[in-house]
Amino acid sequence: METTTSSNETLEQAGARDAEKNRRSEFSRSWRRFKRFKPGVVALVFIAILGVIAIIPGVFEPYSYTAIAPAERGAGPSWSHPLGQDDLGRDILSRLIRGTRVAFVVALAATSISLLIGITVGAVAGYFGGTVDSLLSRVVDAILAFPLLILLITLAAVLGPSLWTVVIVIGMTSWASYARVVRADVLSLREREFVLAARTAGATDRRVIFRHIVPSVLGPVIVLASLSVGIVILLEASLSFLGFGIQRPTPAWGSMLSDGRDFLRNYPHIAISPGIMIFLTVLAFNLIGDGLRDALDPRQRE
């Protein structure tokens, strides 16, 4: 009995090693395919630069993002203030740089929460099927039936506006699309040979789901997540623009856009800069998503 158990464990470990080697080889091929999509490479470099800025914004800020100069309210771009100053005389470039951290924290944290919930719900629903699948699918359908922005505004108003409220609210309401994609893939994988082999080796359902099945469905999920990050940035900007997101004086691109709304006629530069940053960042994540979609497509050839 002990010899049979040991043999089963050895077979499972060998299978896991082979799967790891295959994943590494596939990663190399996917990276080569991604590099052929030049807009995606440019977008990746742009996001990497923004990521560095988000980590250490103080290094790049020419002025304090809270410093007020009442005598220079609404001043246009100049050598000392390349993007001009806002309605209170604060340097727009410094506030834009600081807002990059807010955008990335919200986008990455909310997307991580959505991924964790969506992958878990989708994998459990697809693997067990039956009543579990029906119940979880109805929950997913109910969440998708609500207009997302209205749901976000309602929850943010109830919980109170703050950075982590925005993260939690977006993360807890944006996971349904991940669950649907994962469920569809798991339904097609749960009877495959490697899953049956893992069950035969005595692996628990939890181990089969998260060790063997979930890694096999990460390709479409990664593509969806890269596209969804841009959507999360737009949602955060929308909430901040409406006053339900990041609260002043902490700079967020959405609230900066809202600040410039009342001064479009006299000081249009106040709203132009954050608007352009939102556009470029969302576009960059969408281009990365397009590149990943082609790179992770198994039908692509070298």
For the structure shown, list the relevant keywords.
74% helix, mainly alpha, MetI-like fold, 302 residues, 0% strand
Supply the CATH class. Answer: Mainly Alpha
> What kind of sheet is the major sheet?
none
From the alpha-carbon coordinates, what is the Rg to the nearest angstrom? 23 Å
The geometry reads as elongated
The helix count comes to 13
CATH fold assignment: MetI-like fold
What number of domains?
1
| Record field, number of beta strands | 0
Order of helices and strands: HHHHHHHHHHHHH
- Secondary structure class reads mainly alpha
- Low-pLDDT sequence parts: none
Distance between the termini: 47 Å
CATH superfamily, please?
Answer: MetI-like
Portion of residues in beta strands equals: under 5%
Can you give the helix content as a percent range?
over 70%
CATH architectural category = Orthogonal Bundle
What is the arithmetic mean of pLDDT?
Answer: 84
Quick synopsis:
This protein is mostly helical.
Topology, element by element:
Elements: H1 2-35, H2 38-55, H3 57-60, H4 92-128, H5 130-145, H6 148-159, H7 163-173, H8 176-189, H9 193-200, H10 205-213, H11 218-242, H12 253-261, H13 269-295
